[in-house]
Design goal:
Largest sheet: 5 strands, parallel
CATH class: Alpha Beta
Oligomer: single chain
Order of helices and strands: EHEHEHHEHEH
CATH topology: Rossmann fold
CATH architecture: 3-Layer(aba) Sandwich
Length: 217
């Protein structure tokens, strides 16, 4: 099994309308519960608890030893993880600006050669599916390639309670199977990638300091 999964929540809206405001917190908590049930260590990264520096400056753009502590701590968490669950609502057919802002602070060297899982949600009928399209491109560029299965939760307020448990009348077994399809793929790929990294095989260079490293010679 993978060593650690980060569940990164792409929402910091704490008040409505609509209510309940923090639907993403419920979805992220549900993913954490399923990972814990599989004995996979998992940690939530909640942007409400993180005060990112403004104006925007990515972690890798600071001189050595001068980066803010909050970015250093996040970088350590990202680097130590074996995989990522990215939880996002949909904004204008895209992933949430909060999630994009958080992830854009870090270069692909921290994420590369690890898998990710896309989880989207909504209060309406589509479950944030259109956001997932752009998330595939975004996460691939970071190097944490998304697994093929995805999780989409329409009417999330009718599925999960505040702690991520199922609300009365919800078919929990059916939802467990749906979540597990994606989370089990993530776990399989995370464990495989961790073994490969542990074997000490040489990895191709990743984008580290200069965006031009993405480009062809």
């Amino acid at each position: 099994m993978p060593g650690k999964i980060l569940v990164i929540l792409g929402s910091e809206r704490v008040s409505g309308p609509p209510e309940p405001a923090r639907l993403g917190e419920r979805v992220a908590a549900a993913c954490l519960l399923r990972l814990v049930a599989k004995a996979v260590p998992a940690t939530l990264v909640d942007p409400v608890e993180i005060e990112l520096p403004h104006p925007f400056k990515p972690h890798f753009a600071y001189r050595r030893g001068s980066s803010p502590d909050v970015l250093d701590r996040l970088a350590e968490q990202i680097a130590a993880a074996d995989g990522y669950v990215m939880v996002s609502p949909e904004y204008n057919h895209l992933m949430s600006p909060v999630l994009a802002d958080l992830l854009n602070h870090f270069g692909s060297s921290l994420f590369s050669y690890k898998p990710s899982a896309i989880v989207t949600y909504s209060a309406g009928q589509w479950g944030g599916t259109r956001a997932a399209v752009s998330m595939r491109t975004f996460l691939s560029e970071l190097g944490c390639l998304p697994v093929s299965a995805m999780i989409h939760v329409p009417h999330a307020q009718d599925v999960f309670g505040a702690d991520g448990s199922y609300l009365p009348g919800v078919d929990g077994g059916r939802w467990d199977g749906y979540l597990d399809r994606t989370l089990d793929q993530l776990g399989w790929w995370a464990a495989a990638a961790a073994r490969q990294r542990a074997d000490g095989g040489k990895r191709p260079a990743a984008f580290r300091t200069d965006p031009s490293q993405r480009n062809a010679p």
